[in-house]
């Protein structure tokens, strides 16, 4: 059983987290380059938010929204 958990440790520490170790070492040299992964995620989120807002405006312009004040029929 111990070797199973050591295998999981090897997988994560020595294989899957190697790119993060590279970014950690890079931070001492260049902060902007070290945070490349964060910048990519922020750009993806910003694009998704802009897309979502445009879709909301499109549905509002077409009067596709159904804004009922009661969430369920039993609240009427």
Automatic annotation (TrEMBL):
Entry keyword set: Membrane, Transmembrane, Transmembrane helix
Pfam family, one: DUF6341
Segments crossing the lipid bilayer: 31-53
Protein name (Swiss-Prot/TrEMBL): Uracil phosphoribosyltransferase
Organism from which the protein derives: Flavobacterium endophyticum
Lineage, uppermost ranks: Bacteria, Pseudomonadati, Bacteroidota, Flavobacteriia, Flavobacteriales
